Amino acid sequence: MHRTFLLLLICCCSITFAWIPQRRIYASPSARPMTASALDPQNSQQQEDSKFEYVEYDYLTEADFINSEWVVGTLFGNDKKIQETWVRLARTEDGKNVCFWGTKQQGTWNLDVASQFLSISREQIYGKQIWACTVDDYYYLQGTVRGWAFWKAASVYGQWQAARLGVDEEEAGPAPWFQEDGSDDTAASIS
Q1: What are residue 90's DSSP bridge partners?
Q2: What does the H/E/C string look like for the chain?
Q3: CA 12/CA 83 separation, integer angstroms
Q4: N-to-C CA span, the chain
Q5: Phi, psi (rounded to 5 degrees) for 29
Q6: Any bridge partners for residue 122, and if so which?
Q7: Cβ proximity of 103 and 85 under 8 Å
Q8: pLDDT single digits (tens) 23-75
Q9: Among residues 27, 60, 132, 157, which one has the fewest Cβ atoms lying within 10 Å of its Cβ?
Q10: Dist. CA 151–CA 182, nearest whole Å
Q11: Is the pLDDT of residue 185 over 70?
């Protein structure tokens, strides 16, 4: 029972902060009440094997992205046309993660390995745009573009998808956005 609650009150600012630890709850077939069939090791092993699918998944690290190039398609706001460019993710000699865009602009990139969250920025004279996503594929990325300008508050600008360049197409397979998920629910489409 790891219940840790920390309540920090800052009286001078009248701000209350509460920290509650994040918990992960795991359900297991072994958590059910024991029956005579559950005590049989042969039957128990067959039940467990039939209910679980083992998937090999490796966390991606910064080394997987250093010196990689991506073709990026971005759909800004209400545009009807996807803007395509490329981005190269690199590391400088002093260890800073930088990116070079096909639009002759630069920015920075960062991968939080624990949460598998990737952000790639493009800095402009009038503001900044950030392409961000949760990484779950070595070959493909998709997420949202956020940004701000001097005259505009931070907001979501659009959506993007990217494919890694310089890899074997057969090894990469089809992009996740082209794969059919098997559902026939057309009513759930976004208007």
Answers
A1: 98
A2: CCCCCEEEEECCCCEEEEECCCCCCCCCHHHCCCCHHHHCHHHHHHHHHHHCCCCCCCCCCHHHCCCEEEEEEEEECCCCCCEEEEEEEEECCCCCEEEEECCCCEEEEEEECCCCEEEEEEEECCEEEEEEEECCCCCEEEEEEEEEECCEEEEEEEEEEEEECCCCHHHHCCCHHHCCCCCCCCCCCCC
A3: 50
A4: 47
A5: -60, -25
A6: 129
A7: yes
A8: 444 444 444 444 555 555 566 566 555 666 655 557 899 999 999 999 999 99
A9: 27
A10: 45
A11: no
Question: Which tokens is 91 given?
Answer: 């590391």
- Cα Rg for the chain, rounded, in angstroms? 23
> How long is the chain?
191
Using CA atoms, how far apart are residues 188 and 113, in angstroms rounded to an integer?
Answer: 33
Predicted TM-score of the model (pTM): 0.64
